Every structure is written in structure tokens, then in C-alpha cells.
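Sample pair:
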Amino acid sequence: MATILIVEDDKSIHELMVRYLTMTGHTCLAAFCGSEAVTVSKSQSIDLILLDINLPDIDGFTLKKQFSDIPIIYVTARSGIQDRVRGLNGGAEDYIVKPFDFQELIARINVVLRRFQKNDAVFSFQGITIHLEDYKVYRNQQEISLTKQEFELLKALILNKNLTLTRDQLLNTAWGWDYDGEIRTVDVHIQRLRKKLHWENYIRTIYKIGYRLEI
């Protein structure tokens, strides 16, 4: 996974971001002001920066100019359209307004990492190897046949591993926002995945909510 620098002066938000990103396999680096962020960026290899705008020593728009070769996602309380346009026109990959949903944050991070090819293309766990870009799944070099929907469902679980996803979230990810079928189709496909991968103990049912891949 990726090494992500979190530039955020609110320690409670910072700790939550670290917790969720670490759970999904990322390595997190910390900076609570602009000068710290510059120092860390010079000593570490960084794949992505989550950058607040309202920092105590320098604003995020100005600080961004120090990181021309690192993709940036602004994460800020500044919700005005002019700020959004300034951020995106200034070269940021995305602009997320606080308060935000952490699963949406992770999804947006994954989009940027895929764009820069910083996300792992191969995922291995419990004897199963999944090639996320090639839609291939193997057990001991023997391919396991999955339907497109089964693979999209599996991919959503992997990219959000250790996080609980609702049935609606899984349905929207694997079937698309315009799907108007029965939501219980998620349950049917989950059962098929468990059986095909022998992951009955790892794809956990979260009562009345959805599912979680526990790593």
C-alpha cells in the first residue's frame, strides 16, 4: 500500500485518519504544521499528501507549491466554491470538505493512488492471490473462476479491508449506482465468495449493517 503524509493540526482528526488508513494497510506520516510537512517530505518517500488548508504557520494553498511532485488531496473545513476551484486549479487531485465520511476518504485516496499507480496491484491472503487490475484470482497457481460482480465485490472488500461496508455501499460499488435490483443479491454473492475462496472466517457478517474483510 502507500505511504501517506497527513498534514493536519487538529490532533483528534489526525488520530482518526491515522487509525482508518493504517487499518486499510497504508503507512502514515505526521505533520501538524507546514514547516513540519516540508521537513518530513525531504526525509521520507511519500506517495500522497492529505493537506489541510488552515494550518497555524502557512496556508495549504501556499504550502502545496512545495510538493509539486507529490499528489495532493485537500482535506479542509473550507467549503466555499472559490476555495474548491482554487485548490483543484492549483493542481490538487481532489478536494474533500470536513466533516467527511472515512470510507469516502479511503475511496477517494484509492482513486488517486490508482491514477499514480501507487496502489498494490496484487493482494495475497490465506493462500489466495488476487490480481486487482487483471481480474484474476488464484489458489496455489490454480485459477478460481469469479463472475465480474463477484470480483468487484471482492475488490471492494480488499480495498476497504478491516472496515465495515454496508450492503448499499457494496451494491453501489460492485453493481453501480443505477442498479435497481434486490439488495439481498449482495448476501448471495458474499456466500459464493466465501465458498470459492474458503474465507468463511474472514469475510465477516456485521449484524444489520453489512460485511467486513478481516485481515
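DSSP finds eight helices and twelve strands in the chain.
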